Every structure is written in C-alpha cells, then in structure tokens.
Amino acid sequence: MAHVKHQKWWGWGEEGVFFDYQNKPAFAPFVKNAIGVSLRPRERDTVDFATARVPASTASEDVLTVLRGISGAEHVSVDDELRIVHWAGKSVLELMQTLRNDFARVPDAVVYPGSEDEVTAILTAAVEHDLVVIPFGGGSSISRSLQAEADETRCIVSVDMGRLNKVLEIDETSGLATIQAGVLGPDMEEQLNARGWTLGHFPDSFAHSTLGGWAATRSSGMQSDKYGDIADIVRGLRMVRPSGTVVLRSLPSTSTGPSLREMIIGSEGRLGIITELTVQVHRLPQEHEVIAYMFPTWQQALTAVRQYTEAEIPLTFARVSDAHETAFSLATQKAATSVKGKLAAKGQDALWAVMRKRGWDTDAMCISYVCFEGTPKDVAERKKAVAKIAKAQGAVVLGSGPGALYDQKKFDTPHLRDFLLEQNTVGDVSETAAPWSRLTTVHKAAYDAAQRAYERIGKTGWIMSHMSHSYHSGACLYFTFAYVFDDEKPYEEYEIVKSAIQQSFVDSGATLSHHHGVGVEHQPWMEQDVSPEGVALMKGLFHAADPGTNFNPGKIVS
C-alpha cells in the first residue's frame, strides 16, 4: 500500500540502506580475529522478489468480500509481496527463512483498517468466519511474534495498523497525548516535536516500529532511565475485541483490582487489537548531551552506574559496553579524512598509550555513555556529579565527541545483520535483566554458555554485551553473538547457540527477556521464568478471552 510505509521484504529497513565496512579500516581485521571470516565487499544491494516462491493465498472470495466491505477493496490485498512483508518479523532466523524461501505459513490476506470501527468489524468477522488475525505494526519483531503457526489451516489475515497514524490530542496541562496505535516512531515524534513535546521512547527499532507494537511487546527505549519503559509511559488505552472495546481512561493511578493495563501491555495480540493509547509526554529538553567515559574494567564501570542510581542523579540513560563490545565499537570507527578527524585519531592513540603507562590493560577497558538532559544548569550539575563517581572508579572522561557519534549511529546496528548473513554469518542478540547483585554472574554465565555452544557446533564464535536500562534494583544486559553458520543446518546451529544463552539467563537468576517480548522465540523458558502456575494463569486468561483461538494463537504460551 503506497500510503503505508513498509520495510524491504527480504531484510531490515528501507531499500538502499546498508552497513558498509570498507570505510572502517579496523573492522575487517577485527572480524577475522573474532570469528575467522575474511570479509568480502557487499554484493547484495537488493533481492528480486521474482526469486521468492510464495505459497498461494487460501483466502476465499467470501472472506475477501467481507473484508473489502469493511475497509474498502483498495485496503485489502492478496498481493504476494505484501503477504511476504507481513509473514514474519525481522529476527535473524526469520531473515534466513525469507532469503531461503522457507516460508511456512504466510498470511492469506492483508487488511489496512482506517478506523477503530473497522478493526472491530474485522475481529467480529474473524470470529464469525473462524479466521486467524495477527496485528501488524512496523514488522520489526525479533521474537517471532508475527509468524503464524506452521500447521494453521484456517485463513490468516494480517491486520496492518499503518493507516491509524495520528497524534489525536495533547493535554498540555497533564502532559498526556492520545495517539493512534499504528504510528511509526519517527512520524509520531515529528508530530509531537512540532508542538514542543516528546515521548522520549527510542528503541533500536525506532525507525521501523509503532507505538502499538511497543505496547503489545512491553518495549523499552534507550532513554528509559528518564522516560520509563513503555509500561510506565502508557496511562490509558483502547483495545478492540469482537464483543466490545476495553477502554482504560488516562488516570495517574488507580486501585481497581488487577491491572487491566498491565494485562494488555505485552499481550502480543492474544487479547485483541490495541487501537489507541494515551501516553505521558514531556517538553523537549533545553539541552541534550551524551558524554563518553572509559573505565579500566567492566566491574568498575558497573559499580559506577549503580552508584549513579544510588545517588539518584537524574540521567536520561547510562550505558556500559563490556571489553568485547568496546573493541567492536572501536573497530567500527570510520577512517579519518579531515584534518580534525586525523588529529582526533592521533589523540585517541596517544590516550591509549597513556592508559597503558598507567597500568591499564587496554583489552579489558570498557566504554560508557551517559546522556544528560535539562536546563544548562541541570546538565552541568549532573555531569559534575557523574564525573566524580566515574573518576573514583578509575574512569577517564572522553567528552562529548564520542558521545555525539554514538547518538548519531544509535539506530544503525540492525543493518549489520543483513550484511553478516551475506557473509554466511549469524549476528544476533539476546537480552535480559537481573538485580545488581547478580549482573556479573549473569554476564559470565552467558559467556560460558555461548563458548560451550560454539564448541558443540565446532565453530569459533563471538559474544559481547552492554548494560543499559538501569533501575533501582538492577539493570538490563544486552548480548550480541556471532558465528559462521553451516548452509546444511543453519537452524539447528542457531537453536543450539541461542538456547544455551537463554538457558544461562534463567539458571543464573535473570529473566528470559527484558524488552523483546516472548513471541515464539522465548516461549520455552516461560515456566522457568514465571512458574508453571503463572503460565497456567496466562493460558486461562487467553482461553477465556479468545475461546476460538482466533487472535495471534501460539504466542507467549501455547
């Protein structure tokens, strides 16, 4: 549909946007050392859709007539490319399946409702005609929350919310905005910024994900230390069901039994379709600055961030890359071409030399980024307070130059996965959260588990991590892993490595996922995470809400 933005059918993001390593002189040697791959220049600028072998739609003319009667013929499609755009999310496993034409169960039709009434009518029709409906936002899910069950025989309808993309109202007195669920992050921020406001929610997928998708998967943004996770941000919502609409008014707090808001946030379409949300918004800050720090060790960096939290310094975010991720980050620096850039590169080399003279192991050092927002006075005071704690833990303040570069590149990382797949290499992520007292244990356990998995599949692999999303009691750890896959058994190898890392999380006292949701990818660990009785309670809720299993069946718990 020309009026709704979609990602490319075969990979992440828009056509023509790629990861390029050739202007990063340290990157190829780094990859060769890490996983033994000799990189070759990108050859795949696009993938011709004519190469896709798409299963035929099984939507009957009767069903299509009903859908066209609801949203108009121009907003209902059985086009093969649109069906493939909507068949899955963008996990590495799904990208591999797409590129290999391993399409399991593709939606039979895609419908683009233009109003809440149309969404209600679609869900009513789904129950009457025994259809499966799967809500679709930006398609950025990496937990397989968009894939239909492979053995599903009923007609599957993907309900794309992209036409519902407006900021409807801003209550400037209360700092609340009512927004339609299908709006993409950049489009929403543009509408809010025009009136001097921001949601402050910036996940890695920001450019290609929607407000409704964030709520449906319990998303967290890079700036959650200040603005909160999506569960903190959402104050009210509307969720359509065949029997009516759940309306939760935008109240600051309530004592009205078990929280329906919490029940709906993270439900991944199992209870109905979220059409509208009322969210907390904030005035655009006068200043926004990211400062970089280099710590001698991972433990010193974690201690510093915990102490920022204990000192209750208001920060927008505090992030620490471990030694492996720090080395990766340094390897992705572009070659200096300007006089200023060359001087900066020489300065960096000189700084590393000074650190080594001080006794630093530069292979163990960890870079950290802290974001400050507010008035000039607020920012100055908070920078001073953070610097004092960081220096007490041995850090060197690198300043705003590296921080500004981080801010500019923060949404670029997902493009690396497509590039690596062309090099027959998996690059994927697993993230978790744990109390401060468990973080180092969780970190080490994940590294050990990954190494055992690499040995099991007979590969040299890589793992790295960063800490983000700090809380009073703990923080998120976000791991990236990579290895060369075997063309004959790519899915089996992936299962071994991913499962090993996920199992290490729950075994060491962490959660199965901090912000990627459950979908199908993380479902095997649900009983270990929330207890068998907790899973039974969820199953009872989903069965009572959807006895015909018409709403995104099989996600979260089966």
Which secondary structure elements does this structure contain, and how are they paired or packed?
Elements: H1 27-35, H2 61-71, E1 76-77, H3 80-85, H4 92-99, E2 109-111, H5 116-129, E3 132-136, E4 156-160, E5 167-171, E6 176-180, H6 185-193, E7 197-198, H7 211-216, H8 224-227, H9 230-233, E8 234-241, E9 244-248, H10 260-264, E10 273-280, E11 282-283, E12 287-295, H11 298-310, E13 317-321, H12 323-331, H13 339-357, E14 366-374, H14 376-392, E15 396-399, H15 400-409, H16 415-422, E16 425-435, H17 439-457, E17 462-470, E18 474-484, H18 490-507, H19 526-530, H20 532-545
Parallel strand pairs: 2-4, 3-4
Antiparallel strand pairs: 1-2, 5-6, 6-10, 7-11, 8-9, 8-10, 12-14, 12-15, 13-14, 13-17, 16-18, 17-18
Keywords: FAD, Flavoprotein, Oxidoreductase
GO molecular function: alkylglycerone-phosphate synthase activity; FAD binding; oxidoreductase activity
Pfam families: FAD-oxidase_C (PF02913), FAD_binding_4 (PF01565)
Q: What features would you describe in this structure?
A:
- Its cofactor is FAD.
- It comes from Kocuria marina subsp. indica.
- This protein has 558 residues and is α+β, with helices and mostly antiparallel strands.
- Among the domains are: 112 residues, Uridine Diphospho-n-acetylenolpyruvylglucosamine Reductase, domain 2 (2-Layer Sandwich); 117 residues, Uridine Diphospho-n-acetylenolpyruvylglucosamine Reductase, domain 3 (2-Layer Sandwich), CATH 3.30.465; 123 residues, Vanillyl-alcohol Oxidase, Chain A, domain 3 (3-Layer(aba) Sandwich), CATH 3.40.462.40; 37 residues.
- Helices cover 37% and strands 19% of the residues.
- It contains 20 helices and 18 strands.
- It has a 7-stranded antiparallel beta sheet with strand order 15-12-14-13-17-18-16, sandwiched between helices. It has a 5-stranded antiparallel beta sheet with strand order 5-6-10-8-9. The protein has a 4-stranded mixed beta sheet with strand order 1-2-4-3.
- α17 packs antiparallel against α18.
- It is globular.
- The two termini are 32 Å apart.
